[in-house]
Amino acid sequence: MKKTIRFESIPIKNPDAAHRTILSELIILNLDNGFYYSANEVGARLWELCDGRRTVRDIIALISEEYEVTEEEAAGDVFDFLGDLHREGLITLENEPDD
User: Fold this and answer.
1) By the 8 A CB rule, do 46 and 94 touch?
2) For an engineered disulfide with 24, which of 3, 18, 39, 41 has Cβ 3.0 to 4.6 Å away?
3) Please, what are the averages of pLDDT over each run of 10 residues along the chain (99 residues)?
4) Which of 69, 62, 32 is CA-nearest to residue 47?
């Protein structure tokens, strides 16, 4: 069962996802299903921040600061992108209240 992403969630990259950044574009290959995904510079930065140490709240704060947008704007984009990664099995979520 897929978990809901929360501010306290800690996203972690799936070790079965190969990735490379080429000219600020992120390419991810899901080795489990053979599908590949691409993302722009912001998506590449978000992927980099899914390091198993930062919460979603931490990631939102960093994106807000680095890209000079409000935390509300950053939160919408971060939740959307992480939601897509999670649905595709490219990240897992740790430190959930129900873990």
Assistant:
1) no
2) 41
3) 84 95 93 93 96 97 97 97 96 73
4) 62
The Cα 28–Cα 47 span in angstroms is 10
The domain spans of the chain are: 16-90
Using left for φ > 0, alpha for ψ between -120 and 50, and beta otherwise, residue 8 falls in alpha
Residues in the chain: 99
Cα(27)–Cα(39) distance, integer angstroms = 7
| Single pTM value for the model | 0.89
Contact 63, 69 (CB under 8 A): yes
Going by the DSSP 8-state scheme, the letter that residue 11 receives in this structure is E
Q: Which CATH architecture has domain 16-90?
A: Orthogonal Bundle (1.10)
